[in-house]
Amino acid sequence: MEYLEHLTGIFWNIFADPFVSFGFMRKALVGSFAVAVGCAPLGLLMIYRRMSLLGDALSHAILPGIALGFFFFAGSPIAMMVGGLATALIVAALSQSVSLHGKHSHESAFSVFYLFSLALGILLITLRGTPLDLLHILFGNIITLSSLSLILVIGTSLATLSIGLLGAQTWIILTVDPEYLKNRSIWAFAAMALMIFNMVSAFQAMGTLLAIGILLIPAATAHFWSHRLSILFIVTIGLGMLASYLGLLLSFHWNWPAGPTIILILGGMFFLSFLLGSEKGIITPFRKEEAAHSSPHPILTYFWGVLMASCLLSPFALPSQSFGAPPRLKIACTTPVGCDLLKAMAPQASQRIEIHTMVGPQGNNHHFEPRPETLKLLKSIDFIVTNGLQYETWLEPLLKNNRLKIQIKEMSQGIQALADSNHLPDPHAWHNPLNGIRYAENIKNILIEKAPTFRENIESQFKIIQQALLDLDQEQLNLFKEPPYLQSHIVLPHPFLRYFADRYGLTSQIQSMTQNSHFGELPAKELKNLVVEFKKKTPLYLFSEYPEIEAPILVLSRELKKPVAGALYSEALIPEKECAQEVSCYIATLKRNRDLLKKVISSSRIPPNSN
User: Fold this and answer.
1) Residue 541's beta-bridge partner residues?
2) 309 & 367 share domain
3) Residue 188 has what pLDDT?
């Protein structure tokens, strides 16, 4: 009996508890189920009409409208849906017009307009957004689905099923006789409009690149199991639901991105069906020659029934269990610098306080995309320590969409922010050691408030960190006023050392390829101007941002025939094993940047009166 209860608990924790205990998982499951149901009839229609590539093209053609809705209406799901629908209809209408009045086929005209639309969408995102915006629109994130987006997805699914039932007979004839449409143009338009609506709806969960997957792959896979339309419809919905359920489970337990995981599972189902399908599988053990045009094997029908029932009922099949509240104060931090200072400030309080990093020591908030692990952590913590200065742009929508009310403490409180060319605050304030002291002081006050019994230890650690940063600041004031540094020209990919340069009087010596904190693709004209400008400056040193060398700095290096001197740390910190002798890895990272600049510039021979 105990063994059975233990086994039941294991199954509960793996298959049901993620959806019972976490609202974001329930919302993602309902949203993905709705997408699967709405896409099923349209996927079958596209497979029968051989319109798969047309659907793929339409999924990319919606990008400009989605981008416009994203930027001009603050990411409103309704605005993005209307924009995506409008651009897709425009592309479809233009390609139809060219094919009717020109010499090109409908496919070639459509290819031209969809590629034009895709390029326009990417251009809009590049000019107005950040790399994170582009990733979000292209790949989506179903676990951050908002309530309004969920309503739109469900509404689209219900509308598709309702219109599909009304026009079922017409669409069935359409699959085998396209000429029938000549006197039924309203249903052809309805099919195209619903196809676009469902792709825009699926974008909310899967992004524009993967939205077509949930539309086509289940329908294509179902054809390996039956040729009867009613069975195909049921199997298509079942496959979409099952893949969504399993994909969300893998995403939850293994911290994989949910959208790509769902599509990968659908691809695996397609391959297995290709091998074992009762209708067209190549090595199925139970296919009978005389039953080639009959219903699917009874075992197969039972198999699908069990899987679908398990998928739908598992979150509600077992009673809820309580495993107890966390015994210690849990703090989440959004930056490597914040986590490092928290750990350095309260080493004696480690038994009372748990510190969890959301981005990681090598992470970058500019490109951070929340995963299931992020939301699991947010549900269990007591408060969040953030950098502030509009650095964690992903955090507020994440908390709002999941209705999480968590206290937020900003480390940068009291710091005078420097602005970039868009008049937005530069978040990289920690590169000035004096700002680092303010960070440490704010963290000290937070820890004393939450763990007053460790006040003496926390204040003692703060004084050590404060003195180390003051010593570093004085060393750098003496170092960077020397002629080799005042006569040098340092080029960075983006201005992450703005606070550093401002503190040590190097604002004219340290320049960047772009003036925005969020680094994106550089237009050719701007890159040309940079090459012309930097050719006139000597001595010139090119540095990249750790951990990788960006493509634009490499292009500049080749054009100027100057090697990249090294990589400076911007968001990340050096590994813990390399900073064991320091008070904190944050301070060790500042010293590492200083030492690299000193090594590169001091080793060069700079002629007097250089410009």
Assistant:
1) 490
2) no
3) 63
CA-based nearest residue to 435, from 337, 571, 545: 337
The residue to which tokens 């416009």 are assigned: 68
Whether 461 and 344 have beta carbons less than 8 Å apart is answered as yes
Domain around 563: 478-602
Looking at the predicted structure, is the pLDDT value of residue 439 above 90?
A: yes
Asked if 207 and 137 touch (Cβ cutoff 8 Å), the reply is: yes
The answer to the question of residue 2 being in a domain is no
* 1: in domain: no
Return the closest-CA partner of residue 432 out of 491, 344, 506.
Answer: 506
Residue 532: phi, psi to the nearest 5?
-65, -40
- pLDDT > 90? residue 183: no
Q: Are residues 200 and 296 in the same domain?
A: yes
Which of 86, 64, 55, 82 lies closest to 195 in space, CA to CA? 55
Helix axes 585-602, 336-345, angle to 10 degrees: 120
Q: How far apart are CA 200 and CA 83, in angstroms?
A: 9
Tally Cβ neighbours within 10 Å of residue 80: 24
CA distance 185 to 192: 11
In this structure, the answer to whether residues 563 and 468 fall within a common structural domain is no
Distance CA 460, CA 456 (A): 6
β-pairing, 407-410 with 353-357? unpaired
Q: Structural domain tally of the chain? A: 3
Q: How far apart are CA 304 and CA 295, in angstroms?
A: 14
Tokens of 583: 């008070």
* pLDDT score at 167: 66
Query: Hey, what are 226's tokens?
Result: 């039956």
Confirm whether pTM is higher than 0.85: no
Note whether 282 and 384 are same-domain residues. no
Contacts of 138 (CB under 8 A, 6+ apart): 207, 208, 209
Neighbours of 309 (CB within 10 A): 11
Instruction: Please give the single-letter amino acid code of residue 478.
Output: N
Measure CA 301 to chain center. Answer: 38
Position 171 confidence tier, pLDDT thresholds 50, 70, 90: low
| CA atoms within 13 A of residue 39's CA, in its CB half-sphere | 34
Q: What percent of the chain has pLDDT over 90?
A: 22
* Cβ(505)–Cβ(485) below 8 Å: no
> Rounded mean pLDDT of the chain?
79
Residue 13 forms part of a structural domain: no
Longest CA pairwise span in the chain (Å) = 94
Residue at 257 is within a domain: yes
Q: Assess contact for 233 and 45: CB atoms under 8 A.
A: no
Cβ contacts of 56 within 8 Å, gap of 6 or more: 212, 216
> Which pLDDT band holds residue 173 (cuts at 50, 70, 90)?
low
Among candidate residues 448, 497, 467, the one with its CA nearest the CA of residue 584: 467
Tokens of 145: 């689905």
Nearest residue to 236 via CA among 51, 29, 39: 39
The CA distance from 158 to 516, in Å, is: 44
